[in-house]
Amino acid sequence: MARLFLIRHAPSAIAPGQIAGRSDVAARLPNDESLARLAARLPDDAQIWASPARRCQQTAAALGLTPSRLVPQLWEQNFGDWEGRSWQVLGPQADYWRDPLAGQPPGGESFAQLWQRVRLADLGAQVAERDLVLVIHAGPIRALVAQALGLTPAKALSLGVDALSLSVLAFHPSASPQTAWSLERLNERHA
């Protein structure tokens, strides 16, 4: 059995409530103590992958991790014209909030499109060999955990994924595809 360690990057260096999405903003790294607590929960000999986003690479470096691979499919949801704006300024955006799964920000992508891009099945072969640590974003973590649990994409949106949290999925290669994954930890915080 091997594990998939899912780390959400440190908070983005933007104003609270501002949308980062695909914007390549820096991370606002916390004190060394909280980073050390998180790093202590990770395996020593795992493969390390990250989103190409600067905030993910900075978080990995602060944890003492060197990604061997930057994976474009693991970028956050693209919020298009809304990136850099505040959710509060946007207001209700009725079309989007009526169906946040299929709702697509202007020039961006829906969560349903992210779901198709981020596939747990694509990681099974990698995890079967040895543990894999991913330093990524909330949207992809929601998708991967929900896929492991057999949840719908709509249910994935209800999963909380805090900055610098750790979620862990265990992979059982001899099990059936429907039961090969189990959730060990979700949204474990170390700050």
Give structural notes.
With 191 residues, the chain is α/β, with parallel strands linked by helices. It has one domain (2-189): 3-Layer(aba) Sandwich (Rossmann fold). The chain is built from eight helices and six strands. It has helices at 32-39, 54-62, 87-90, 94-98, 111-117, 124-129, 138-149, 153-156; strands at 2-8, 47-50, 69-70, 132-136, 165-171, 181-189. Strand 2, helix 2 and strand 3 (69-70) form a beta-alpha-beta unit. The two termini are 29 Å apart.
Short description:
The protein is α/β, with parallel strands linked by helices and 191 residues long. It has helices spanning 32-39, 54-62, 87-90, 94-98, 111-117, 124-129, 138-149, 153-156; strands at 2-8, 47-50, 69-70, 132-136, 165-171, 181-189. The protein starts with a strand and ends with a strand.
